[in-house]
Write a structure and sequence with these properties.
The protein is 38% helix and 22% strand. Helix 4 runs antiparallel to helix 5 and helix 6 packs parallel to helix 7.
């Protein structure tokens, strides 16, 4: 299951506009490159050095002026940023009544703890969101602690209906807030549920349409999504398969046959 996740790595991001990450170095812009974030400090240093060099050359004043005029592009430097390495993996866990008495929550706990323990870089983090009754809640904010992850999932008491749309919406908010705060590039969603999403976001709404809208929003937020179907073999798997298609991610069934 976790082998389908993107590899953990840091990467440089030289783009402009809403560029995120730590400013680590400067570089000359590429030939023809027009959209970049100017590194003011490095540009000033480069131009000061170039002017000092030009001033030390022998020749007529006009010649020196000509050299200074060429500094417009030659002395320009852009910012190169490095986003935080590793992944934020948000486990979205169904805690409704249909998840009680079986192995689903145990599987979720083992997946979250196993991922953290297998991370050799120390950069991966997990967050846990559960949904039941009519709402979703954050059980665990992003952490690298496998102990905290196990404790958070161990405290879940299944019960109530299945507000899948609320869970998807809450997971998206966790990812967006963390992206603004940490700049971490890879954001992975893992959904563990047996389906049966039957609660709309608002009274009188349509649960299926709400799930579709939340999934569409998550496609813009998550860099990767995985859907884990925990329903027994004799039950329908259509809803979870449809969710995987809506999230454009792989589908896995880990249930058991009667």
């Amino acid at each position: 299951m976790l082998s389908t996740l993107p590899p953990t790595r840091a990467h440089e991001d030289p783009q402009t506009g809403r560029a995120r990450g730590r400013y680590v170095r400067s570089a000359p812009p590429g030939e023809g490159e027009t959209e970049f974030e100017v590194a003011v400090d490095a540009t000033l240093r480069a131009r000061a050095v170039a002017r000092a060099f030009a001033g030390s050359q022998s020749g007529a004043g006009a010649g020196r002026a000509g050299k200074r005029q060429k500094l417009g592009r030659a002395g320009l430097r852009k910012k190169v940023r490095r986003r935080r390495g590793g992944r934020l993996v948000v486990f979205l866990v169904d805690a409704s009544e249909s998840m009680s008495g079986r192995y689903q929550l145990v599987a979720a706990r083992e997946a979250a703890v196993g991922m953290l323990r297998s991370d050799k870089t120390g950069h991966d983090r997990v967050a846990i969101v559960s949904f039941q009754n009519r709402s979703a809640r954050v059980l665990l904010n992003p952490t690298r602690s496998s102990i905290r992850a196990a404790r958070a999932l161990g405290g879940v008491s299944p019960g109530g209906s299945t507000p899948l749309a609320a869970g998807l919406a809450k997971a998206g908010r966790v990812m967006r807030f963390d992206a603004m705060r940490s700049g971490q590039a890879a954001r992975v969603l893992i959904v563990l549920s047996d389906g049966r999403g039957n609660v709309p976001l608002r009274e009188g709404g349509n649960a299926g349409r709400d799930v579709a809208r939340a999934a569409a929003e998550l496609r813009r937020t998550a860099t990767h999504s995985v859907v884990i179907d925990t329903a027994p073999g004799e039950e329908s798997h259509e809803q979870m398969q449809k969710l995987a298609a809506q999230l454009q991610g792989p589908y896995h069934w880990i249930g058991s046959r009667a």
